[in-house]
């Protein structure tokens, strides 16, 4: 359950917001004073903060600023004065949303839900995803080192995989065999640029429908190869 902190010195407003949010299934805490609100916002684990601008002791500006230094949870700022809202927008304090009082409780609930959903997505997008290179029917998962051609997985040796990935990541760029050899094989490697030709042939057998008429890796006669987009 998402936990929300409301920092609001007008008790009737705080109660109204709390009631509506609780009815929508949120866990809600309220705080009247700015200094207490700031302390709890920093020390406790809230998922979202609704922050009044004018507060006793420490105002909403400062709370927002301090919270932003440490947390990236959504902050919704509310104020009775439209001018103040315009002013804080201009300050770029990093609040996620601004509402002018009075607002309808259902609008508040809708905005809270939207910001929590966005925040959830943000958190999940920070989970490291596999690095994928996808060109036409070819999908290369660089992290898992797996390749699919039109949805069917194909097995590649280490060097074949490296060569295919390098070319696919630099599409439409013509590389000489020497360049490819230097890029994929380390200096101590035994072998010569003919190795590149052999590997290109193997890769084509795995990705091309007709190796005589390659659709992906083209031979540029007298120069080298390029991955066609
Ligand atoms: Ca106030």
Quick description:
By secondary structure, this protein is α/β, with parallel strands linked by helices.
Structure description:
The protein is of the alpha/beta class and 229 residues long. The chain is built from eight helices and twelve strands. It has helices at residues 11-23, 34-43, 60-70, 82-91, 105-125, 158-169, 177-184, 194-207, and strands spanning 3-7, 27-31, 48-52, 75-79, 97-100, 132-135, 138-141, 146-149, 152-154, 175-176, 217-220, 224-227. Helix 6 (158-169) crosses helix 8 (194-207). Calcium ion binds next to loops.
Number of helices: 8
- How many individual β-strands? 12
Strand arrangement across the biggest beta sheet: 2-1-3-4-5
Q: Judging from the principal axes of the Cα atoms, what is the shape?
A: elongated
Bound molecules: calcium ion
Write the layout of secondary structure elements.
Blueprint: E1 3-7, H1 11-23, E2 27-31, H2 34-43, E3 48-52, H3 60-70, E4 75-79, H4 82-91, E5 97-100, H5 105-125, E6 132-135, E7 138-141, E8 146-149, E9 152-154, H6 158-169, E10 175-176, H7 177-184, H8 194-207, E11 217-220, E12 224-227
The chain binds calcium ion (CA).
Calcium ion (CA) is lined by residues 9-10, 52, 54-55.
């Amino acid at each position: 359950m998402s936990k929300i902190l409301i920092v609001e010195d007008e008790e009737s407003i705080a109660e109204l917001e709390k009631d509506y949010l609780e009815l929508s299934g949120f866990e809600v805490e309220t705080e009247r004073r700015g200094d207490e609100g700031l302390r709890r916002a920093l020390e406790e684990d809230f998922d979202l903060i609704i922050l009044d601008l004018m507060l006793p002791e420490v105002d909403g500006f400062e709370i927002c600023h301090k919270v932003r230094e440490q947390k990236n949870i959504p902050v919704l700022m509310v104020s009775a004065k439209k001018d103040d809202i315009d002013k804080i927008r201009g300050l770029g304090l990093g609040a996620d949303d601004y509402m002018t009082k009075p607002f309808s409780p259902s609008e508040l609930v809708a905005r809270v839900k939207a910001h929590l959903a966005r925040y959830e997505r943000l958190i999940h997008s920070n989970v490291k995803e596999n690095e994928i290179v996808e060109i036409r029917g070819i999908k290369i998962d660089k992290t898992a080192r797996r390749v699919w051609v039109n949805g069917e997985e194909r097995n590649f040796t280490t060097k074949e995989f490296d060569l295919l990935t390098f070319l696919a990541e630099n599409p439409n760029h013509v590389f000489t065999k020497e360049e490819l050899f230097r890029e994929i094989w380390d200096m101590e490697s035994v072998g010569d640029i003919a190795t590149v030709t052999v590997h290109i042939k193997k890769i084509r057998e795995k990705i091309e429908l007709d190796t005589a008429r390659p659709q992906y890796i083209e031979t540029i006669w007298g120069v080298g190869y390029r991955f066609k987009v």
